[in-house]
Design a protein that fits this description.
Order of helices and strands: EHEEHEHEEEHEEHEEEEEHEEH
CATH architecture: Alpha-Beta Complex
Strand content: 25-35%
CATH superfamily: Spore Coat Polysaccharide Biosynthesis Protein SpsA, Chain A
Distance between the termini: 19 Å
Radius of gyration: 20 Å
Largest sheet: 8 strands, mixed
Number of helices: 7
Structural class: alpha/beta
CATH class: Alpha Beta
Shape: globular
Number of domains: 1
């Protein structure tokens, strides 16, 4: 099974970082969030990736071209006329990575549509800016069990503001810094049957007509994820995810 990662957006709400790099290349710890997402999938048996590039996509290409040298110990024999570099391949993941230019301003659905010739079987798909401790095997099993075209992972997001509970005498009875919302939202981590391409065009915004029409046709199911999920939409999100990583308390680190 392949995993498609949508990595072409401009990340305007994270301008402090994305002025210089594409959003999927913003780091958590010493690695881009894109790497963390791929590790989530790889730890659960998915090693074939298609990455839909757009804004500053050349930086993502450059990262993967250099990746073996960045993560490996190197041995370089300068005594030869053409110095030979030996890479410690034991530290490399056995990934197959497709790096696909899908347009600098293409919408999410259009990016998927452009890769239809490479996605001929059921595939998982997510955004390049969010991490979660999703059980991918359970997600895919749920998708196969219902036989519909699409499954979306539904999550409870953390509220942007802290909440307080006020007793009848105006006393604050409870305080929560980052409470979890009661409503479900689209958390990415989709599973799509190839019939999804019947709902997409080159101009589609996935989250609008395609998903709305799938829901209308009773072809969209929700897999409810009660664990950790967090996007990297703002500099505050970036700081929070880095704090979790630095503290050794990153719930999405399932590898």
């Amino acid at each position: 099974m392949k995993a498609l990662i949508l990595a072409g957006g401009q990340g305007t709400r994270l301008r402090e970082e994305t002025e210089y790099r594409p959003k999927p290349m913003v780091h958590i710890g010493s690695k881009p969030i894109l790497w963390h997402i791929m590790k989530i999938f790889h730890s659960q048996g998915i090693k074939n990736f298609e990455i839909a590039l757009g804004f500053k996509g050349d930086q993502i290409k450059d990262y993967f071209l250099k990746y073996p040298y960045l993560v490996s110990d190197l041995s370089i024999d300068f005594s030869k006329e053409s110095p030979e570099t030996i890479i410690d391949k034991s530290v490399l993941e056995n990934w197959t990575v497709g790096l696909n230019d899908t347009g600098a301003t293409t919408n999410t659905g259009g990016r998927i549509f452009r890769l239809r010739d490479k996605l001929t079987e059921t595939f998982v798909c997510t955004y390049g800016d969010g991490v979660a401790d999703v059980n991918v095997a359970e997600l895919v099993s749920f998708h196969r069990s219902h036989g519909k075209i699409a499954t979306v992972t539904a999550v409870h997001p953390s509220a942007r503001f802290g909440s307080i509970e006020i007793a009848s005498d105006s006393r604050v009875s409870a305080f929560a810094e980052k409470p979890v919302s009661n409503h479900w939202v689209n958390g990415g981590f989709f599973v799509f049957d190839p019939r999804i391409f019947e709902y997409l065009t080159i101009d589609s915004i996935l989250e609008r007509e395609p998903l709305e029409n799938l829901a209308r046709d009773s072809q969209l199911m929700a897999w409810q994820h009660h664990g950790f999920w967090h996007p990297m939409d703002t500099i505050r999100d970036s700081q929070h995810l880095n704090e979790l990583w630095d503290e050794g308390n990153a719930p999405w680190k399932v590898w």
